[in-house]
Fold:
Amino acid sequence: MIMSLQPFINEAISPWLKEEGPNNDIVLSTRIRLARNFDKFPFPIIADKEELSPIVQLIQDEYHHQSFDSYQDLEYISMEELQPIEKRVLVEKHLISPNLAEKSINSGVLISKNEQVSVMVNEEDHIRMQLYFPGLQLEKALEQAFTFDDWLEEKIDYAFDEHRGYLTSCPTNVGTGMRASVMMHLPALTLTQKMNKMIPAINQLGLVVRGIYGEGSEALGNIFQISNQVTLGRSEVDIIEDLQSVVKKLIEQEEFARQLLVEQSELRLEDRVFRSYGTLKYSRIIESKETARCLSDLRLGIDVGYIDHLSKTILNELMILTQPGFLQQYAKETLSAKERDIRRASIIRERLKLENG
Structure:
């Protein structure tokens, strides 16, 4: 393992995620992602590997071990130097995309010490910077993203058109180049069968609902990612306002659905929560989907007051710690699916026992 990678894979939970954020009983995190490309350089989707080398060299020369504002000691990590399991761990922590994990030569990521900022280099675009915040903080996240983007632009000439905006590899990102997304835990809307009816309505508003790892991923543990689809012809502020409006409505609907569940199905809901708690606490073998479902039930149980001796930080930690990459990273070997299920159950039991102790 390269030494520069070690701090980012030693801890399952990123430092910024340990902080409290607005509406954090329902909104887990806010992310702003900006796609940018260098002017007068071929974009990654058509460039030869050698043509991407100057991009990597500039990022390393200008930003490796640099700091900006609260984003200290930015570390550049080359994809070429990573093992497949190490890449998977970074995907599980949302520090890189699955797409970047498939790259090797002349691609990498720049990560701040607190893991709140990651800048993917030569993924689909030359640069895809991501800024994360706990809870619902879209306006603050956008403001910080603009500031960080301006800092990068001091050394980089971006590909920009006065009429179209920022030019990107994928036409759906042209314009602002921005994807704003909010990660939400919506168990009550799922349990009451309302979420499936709401997704088409959300899509009609120019937003998209995805799973925990973005495009093509499943909404494991009732966690949904709500983000904008439109990037051209609208300002970043307008996009943020639309997303904020929909997210606040979803928060209201989830709160109402939780209240309804407690009032009309209290014993059944309480039974579900504690059955899931028992499963996590005593299982000797458990699959990732069942783990996600049980952790979701446990989180809901904490939010509605059934469980008061566990911290949601523990659940955030277990949500990452029990993923396949992390399980194998800690085992220092490749594990079969059954071996992962056994090790996952063991880690959960140990972590809950430690917390209760």
Summary: The radius of gyration is 21 Å.
